[in-house]
Design a protein that fits this description.
Strand content: 15-25%
Structural class: alpha+beta
Number of helices: 32
Radius of gyration: 43 Å
Mean pLDDT: 84
Largest sheet: 8 strands, mixed, barrel
Low-confidence stretches: none
Number of strands: 32
Length: 838
């Protein structure tokens, strides 16, 4: 036996070593997996930003560093919230256009910080749909770097060449904090990074770069389960040997112990009796300390016993309940087979548990408990009753009900939320066709609500929403569902016999009641509401389509000027789809260079020469031909493309103007483009790139750009004048403050709107206005240009009244650059003399 034990000890030692080796192998796989998981985590975080529409607009289409540095975009939140030490946006030319290091934007070059490996990573990421990650070493530091193409889902990736991508890069330093998180998550002890191959580490894995260069080693101290096993097994074995040594002595003294055992048997019986009494006492203590109470019944299900916890929990005395049947004290809160079998006293006499029922406590309040019991059987197997426990679960049930309510209601207003709204909509539409056709959806969107949050704060906005919710509920019927879908979006499910008449009546009532002032924190606030209505029909009861139709009608209500309602009609969807198609085509037109410039000459009457041209953008659609600017320019302003289009127009016009050395080129600035904070830098950059002299560039603005913030507009115009460009007021006379603007702003030219020129012959007032404007221009020493000249009579009148320049179809339509060159070459003084004669 001793030899056997020694063999076992040897086997245990060998097994312990094997277990240690297996632990090293397992922890190696775990460490490799940890790095892979962290890499995927960085990639997922990066993808959330790389497919972001706003990031694409502000870091690719234009470089808006202020937007990028804003917390919540790609600013301090990247470091503080996600823990990335560095993030970069790298342009297609390989320039670091934006960098944030430890949460602070900095002007640094990513390739200087990481000279080896970053370019290869960017090259690989530009060909991949998902972010690409790898390890990069810079000095003595190792970084986990992820790179991805910055491209929103609205742009087809295949339509953009890989060389034109802007790349977004996230960098995570493999510092002690990072390693500590891996150590905590994956239970790897003493984890560290060594730059050279470790000599004494028990476990390590090499770290490789993308080009298979060895960057360092990840080391840790693996567990030693084998040695722990030895510590557990060897002492018992040693004790076993000691017992074997004493075995002989035990055998020798066995006879004497047997004799003493007989003498002590009576004492043992007494000890067992004492143990039983102690066990019963322990059971009683546990039963009384438990939150449950114990009950018993007789064969007729009469309650015959309660533990003392019964009185503590219910407040009732046991004597007041004993003798009652289970059915008299307890009642079910829902019909169930288990409860019915119990109260009917069937002969099954089987155990039961989790039987939910109700009872009334000493205060008369209804409480909820859960019963469990099992039959009591006599020595002959006869049924003697039930014994079991009861657990009070009232607070648990109430908590569950509160959680259910919160899951289906808006926490701020108490109205049904989106989840409950959808459930009730599905229920309403699942009825028969006649009932479903009475269902209407009313979608509401508040007007001017954002101004309340911006001026008074979100607290005031919350109070406003609560008051608004009360008004909505007061207007609706009890059968209607008023829900808050989120933010300032509300919706109502209305059941009515006369649809859409009843929805229209409710909408008018809502518009009127919301138009009434709200009093919030001493402020009287005024807001409005736009409403879209969609009515279900017998053939189509799809809730998704009904909601979509209501949203489309709401969109049309906003287009109609807000504070109104619209009912969905089939053509609205077609118009919306057409608009979305046009929006997609316009984005593709910008990417595919489908835009072109046409030029309309300006004739100077004093010299009869072409002295300037106005650049007008045109869109040559591959299937629709030339699309009117009146159709796509407002769309470009709405979807945020106007700044990119405007910069392209400005650069193209300046570059083509070099072909006509003696001419100035006029470019229109839209209000959105004028308010862009980078306008001044853009003009300087374009002039620098093209080489056009600033005195040859004329920027035309309308009065609308000056209305909202005259002081800011004046600063922008003075900065443009400082560059050396000319400023013209376009469409003069169509606004409200033209004369005031001429007195306050540094304009070089007045362009009389073509509506006055066209009405000169038919309306005497129009001619008088034109004369007054020409006289005003002369007195202010400004050049005057008349737009829309189409007849020789108009040209003669304007010449006689002292107009400086003429522009219109009488001389030339807007024509491509190639035709303009021919027009200038063929221009001769006979036509100018003919104008003067006319």
């Amino acid at each position: 036996m001793i030899v056997t034990i020694l063999v076992i000890i040897g086997f245990v030692i060998i097994s312990a070593r094997s277990q240690n080796e297996l632990e090293v192998e397992a922890s190696t796989k775990l460490a490799t997996t940890a790095l892979q998981v962290k890499a995927r985590e960085v990639a997922r975080n990066l993808r959330d930003y790389a497919v972001w529409e706003d990031a694409y607009k502000n870091l690719h289409e234009r470089i808006d560093l202020e937007w990028a540095a804003t917390d919540g975009n790609i600013g301090a939140n990247i470091y503080e919230g996600l823990g990335y030490e560095m993030a970069f946006a790298i342009s297609p030319e390989g320039k670091t256009v934006y960098a944030v290091v430890e949460g602070k934007p900095q002007k640094v070059d990513a390739f200087e910080l990481m000279p080896r490996g970053l370019r290869d990573l960017l090259r690989a990421a530009s060909t991949q749909t998902n972010p690409t990650t790898n390890l990069i070493r810079a000095g003595d530091d190792l970084f986990l770097v992820a790179a991805s193409v910055l491209l929103p889902p609205s742009i087809d990736r295949s339509s953009v060449a890989s060389k034109d991508f802007t790349m977004l890069v996230f960098v995570k330093k493999l510092d002690q904090t990072f390693l500590g998180r891996i150590s905590s998550d994956y239970l790897l002890k003493d984890i560290a990074i060594e730059l050279t191959k470790p000599q004494s580490a028990n476990a390590y894995i090499p770290l490789w770069s993308q080009d298979r260069q060895q960057l360092g080693f990840l080391t840790w101290s693996p567990a030693t389960p084998g040695y722990q096993l030895l510590g557990l097994i060897l002492p018992p074995l040693a004790i076993a040997l000691a017992f074997l040594a004493a075995f002989a002595a035990l055998v020798i003294g066995n006879a004497r112990r047997s004799t003493r055992a007989l003498e002590d048997s009576s004492k043992t019986v007494a000890a067992y009796a004492q143990t039983l009494r102690e066990s019963e006492a322990r059971f009683k203590d546990v039963a009384e300390a438990s939150s449950d109470w114990i009950w018993e019944s007789d064969p007729k299900l009469r309650l015959v016993y309660f533990s003392t916890r019964f009185t503590d929990v219910t407040g009732l005395s046991a004597a007041s309940v004993l003798g009652k049947t289970i059915n008299q004290f307890f009642s079910s809160d829902a019909d169930s087979d288990g409860w019915q079998r119990l109260v009917d006293g069937t002969h099954e006499h089987t155990s039961f548990r989790d039987l939910r029922c109700c009872y009334r406590d000493a205060t008369g309040h209804t409480r909820i408990c859960r019963l469990a019991g099992r039959p009591i059987l006599g020595s002959n197997g006869e049924f003697l009753g039930f014994r079991g426990t009861a657990t009070d679960i009232t607070e648990e049930v109430q908590a569950q009900e509160r959680a259910t309510h919160l899951a289906h209601h808006d926490a701020l207003t108490g109205l049904p939320n989106r989840v409950l709204f959808r459930e009730r909509l599905n229920l309403a539409l699942s009825a028969n066709a006649a009932d479903a056709s009475r269902v209407s959806i009313i979608c509401l969107d508040l007007d001017q609500f954002k101004e309340v949050n911006d001026t008074l704060g979100h607290g005031a906005g919350d109070l406003l929403l609560q008051q608004l919710s009360s008004r909505l509920v007061s207007c609706a019927r009890a059968s209607d569902t008023v829900a808050r879908l989120g933010g300032d979006e509300f919706a109502i499910i209305q059941m009515g016999v006369n649809q859409p008449l009843e929805s229209e009546q409710l909408s008018r009532k809502l518009i009127e009641i919301i138009r009434m002032p709200f009093t919030i924190e001493g402020h009287e606030l005024h807001i409005g509401v736009s409403i879209g209505i969609a009515v279900a029909d017998r053939e189509d009861t799809d809730p998704e389509r009904l909601l979509k139709n209501a949203d489309i009608a709401l969109y049309r209500a906003k287009q109609a000027g807000r504070a109104t309602y619209r009912i969905f009609e089939a053509q609205m969807d077609a118009e919306l789809q057409a608009r979305k198609t046009l929006e997609y085509d316009l984005r593709q037109a910008v990417l595919k260079n489908e835009l072109e410039l046409h030029y309309q000459p300006l004739i100077e009457l004093e010299t009869n020469d072409v002295v300037a041209v106005e650049a007008l953008v045109r869109w040559r659609h591959p299937t629709r031909g030339l699309v009117s600017p009146a159709e796509f320019i407002p769309l470009a302003e709405e979807i945020g493309l106007i700044v990119a289009i405007g910069e392209w127009v400005l650069e193209t016009a300046c570059r083509q103007a070099l072909e006509w050395p003696s001419l100035r080129v006029a470019v229109n600035l839209s209000p959105v483009q004028f308010r862009n904070r980078e306008l001044i830098d853009t003009v300087k950059s374009v002039l620098s790139r093209t080489g056009l002299g600033p005195e040859r560039l004329e920027l035309e603005i309308t009065e609308s750009v000056l209305i909202n913030d005259a002081a800011a507009a004046l600063d922008i115009l003075n900065a443009l004048k400082a560059i050396g460009v000319k400023i013209a007021m376009d469409d003069f006379g169509t606004g409200y403050s033209s004369l005031g603007y001429l007195n306050s702003f540094p304009f070089d030219k007045i362009k009389i709107d073509k509506s006055f020129i066209g009405d000169m012959s038919a309306k005497e007032k129009a001619g008088a206005i034109v004369k007054s404007v020409l006289s005003l221009g002369q007195s202010l020493n400004m050049i005057t240009t008349a737009e829309g000249v189409e007849t020789p009579e108009q040209a003669a009148f304007l010449t006689q009244e002292g107009c400086d320049q003429l522009q219109g179809y009488y001389f030339s339509r807007p024509i491509p650059a190639s035709e303009l060159t021919a027009f200038i070459e063929n221009w001769h003084s006979e036509k100018a003399l003919g104008i003067a004669a006319a």
